[in-house]
Amino acid sequence: MKRHLTPELMDDPALDPDEHRRALGGLARLNRISSAGRSPWRGMADLVRGSNRPLSVLDVATGSGDVPISCARRAKAEGLELELHGCDLSEVALSQASQRARDAGLTMTCFQHDILAEPPPDTYDVVTCNLFAHHLDEEGVCLLLRNMAHAARRRVLLCDLRRDRIGLGLAWVFSRLLTRSKVVHVDAIKSVRAAWTPGEMRDLATRAGLENAALPSCFPRRMMLSWEPS
Q1: Residue 39 falls within a domain, yes or no?
Q2: Which residue, 160, 144, 151, is CA-closest to 126?
Q3: pLDDT tens for each residue of 99-133
Q4: What does residue 12 show for φ and ψ, rounded to 5 degrees?
Q5: What pLDDT is stored for residue 146 in this prediction?
Q6: N or C: which end of the chain has fewer CB within 10 A?
Q7: 1 part of a folded domain
């Protein structure tokens, strides 16, 4: 199945803010049903459990913050704590992320930042990115990984879709079952068609300087790149 990258509706800066909020709500529902935070949590849980202080986590291109908030909830259930940070280009998304964190009884520091232009202005124990790499071309993914690695003191975690026909079918079905947002209906299919295969992602990580990154498969039809600075 050949990769096919086309602009997604939610990436359009001219998208109506109300439609954008509806789409973010639909994606939040999809992320919740698919347990999107489970794999990132597993990727950082050993560090959180072994730390004598709250682990600082930056989620880049955070959208409405669903994944880092899910991770913080999982940590809280074990009596642990995360120091949450999120960055995104979209002010609408950042507003949603802040509100969702408050609704969950959490504090999340959100700031506007273009991760493809430069590294974040600070460093964090763990830098995560969820469901963003499929929006990018090869050079964009390499820039993303380099800038994440620059800001990560202990670990980089990048989770994304895998490109295959099963994933395409699941995206079509569940995007229609779980949300009425036409934006999500369109973008869910575009996302899988634009996703990377594990082999492609491993090659891009090597090009970006993240040698020997682990890349296990995750449910449902996803993969998670994990890398630690030497």
Answers
A1: yes
A2: 151
A3: 999 999 999 999 999 999 999 999 999 999 999 99
A4: -75, 115
A5: 98
A6: C
A7: no
